[in-house]
Amino acid sequence: MTQATQSKISQFASRAEEAAFWDSHDTTDFLDELEPVDVEFAENLTESITIRQTPEMLARLRALARQRGLHPSTLARIWIREQLFSAQSPSIGDQRVERNLLALDAQGQVAVKGPGD
């Protein structure tokens, strides 16, 4: 496409406007205005871990995730991220986490170690 040629593709004020345009137009009508690109796919940018839960805890996680329209692993990932960020700035919530860890330790579900253990 030369500078003198007027584009049939509009300028968009937002991504939503652009998405609406492409949802209602066929890209093959604009092939003369498009340029080929090389696409590179990134390697897997995340890693997985296994977190064992009791059936009851897993059922609760699934139910809460379903209520929020999320996959259980997505909800767990959100909560883990929130806790990791809040751990950097101690708060009242940390006391609740500590109580929960001690309760799990009492049930034999987790081993809580103190400083220097």
What would the principal axes of the Cα set say about the shape? elongated
User: How many H/I helices?
Assistant: 4
Cα(first) to Cα(last) distance is 69 Å
Mean pLDDT: 81
Written description of the protein model:
This protein starts with 14 loop residues before the first helix and ends in an 11-residue tail after the last helix. The protein is elongated and about 75 Å long. It contains four helices and no strands. It has helices at 15-23, 55-68, 72-87, 92-106. It has a domain at 55-106. The chain is mainly α and 117 residues long.
Write the layout of secondary structure elements.
Blueprint: H1 15-23, H2 55-68, H3 72-87, H4 92-106
Helix pairs in contact: 2-3
How would you concisely characterize the structure shown here?
The protein is mainly alpha-helical. The protein contains four helices and no strands. The mean pLDDT is 81.
Give structural attributes:
mainly alpha
